[in-house]
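In response to reviewer comment 3 from the previous cycle, which asked for concrete evidence that the modeling workflow produces usable outputs, we include below a single protein chain processed end to end. The sequence was submitted unchanged, and the resulting structure tokens are shown without manual editing.
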Amino acid sequence: MFGYGGDLLPETLPSEAIVSPTYLPETVMRPTDADLDKLAELLSGAERPMIYGGIGCTGAHELVLSLADKLKAPVGWTLKGKMALEHDNPHGVGMTGFIGGKGCADAITECDALLLLGTDFPWTEFIQTDARVAQVLTHGERLGRRTHVELGLTGDVRATLEALLPRIKERTDDSFLQERLQVYRSDLAELERHEHDHGKPGAISPDYLASAVNRHADDDAIVSTDTGMTTVWAARHLKSTGKRTLMGSYSHGSMASAMPQAIGAALAGGGRQTIAMCGDGGISMLLGDLITIGQYKLPVKAVVFNNGTLGMVEIEMQLAGVPNFQTELYNPDFARVAEACGIKGITVEDPGKVDGAIKEAMAHDGPVLMDVKTDRYAVAMPPHTSLEQLGSYTLSEAKMVMTGRGAEVLKQMKANVKYLRDL
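The workflow returned the following structure tokens.
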């Protein structure tokens, strides 16, 4: 419903891209000089320019920042572009979509020129803007599929920016950038506040758990996430270092992708730390993969966000005005299942033991599965939530109360006051 903030991979992307954060396509294309002149004119003439980058910006970090510096433009990124653009970025304003914040979402709405770099961002409700839009993609047939595009250019981002930069007139007015950075700093402060809330025994805060994974993960770790709420927590709390890789089914939304992707990454990653952030629904679908991991002693560190429900499905139902139904899960003891497959199993119910358990898992010479009991009622709202969506959510809560589920609604509201406050 809201989208993760992903963008489509080029069809020709080889497997090396999964484990190499500096990957660049072998075939380098750039737009014509005439198109580059038009793009330079569009951007240089804007009063409130913005750059929104995706996976196509991989390997072009410094060039994107050079362009942003010349334009005094905020830089947002898709989930797939996060590891390429977030780190060391004084122009960064984060993400939009279900996982994003107000800094990027508002910038897209309020800019007068939007440059989509290396992204075919598919969730149109989060790129609604009256701005003049230019787009750079390696696949020309995808230009303008998601939003109106005044100028579409076919080319590799790095080659395009190398040719574009000398054509750009440097701006001096950075007021739009500073306004957006102020909002983004507020977004980060809210995320930090959530990270400091550790939760309760048996209901550990998923924000805190994801931030703990971030603290203890290697600078060049390969992290895979399941589709669902684990993607939300990873997107918000896993930091880019310029060396890390983040993987998931961010275009198609296929469930249970974290574990099989981690298997491939462990085999092809050249010894890099491999972490799978799994939902309990996702890992339940592919428990057989634990046998493969155990048989080959693959050093996968699986962290299961075990909240006993299909969280994303539940949210989508309630935002459609429907009380959640058949979303609760009857889970096995995942740690014991892992032990039966020859994998070290760790169960965590106490928030005070999260850090120690993650340190133990990362230091273990071999595969580990951490079964972490997270808060059943923790949800996250998108940065731009319409009155219609909030009305539908309220309607679903009222229907639950009228059908005798008032205690459940009360628990949900208590758990989510901190998230609703962000709106």
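The chain has two domains: 16-186, 197-420. We consider this sufficient to address the reviewer's concern, and the full set will be provided in the supplementary archive.
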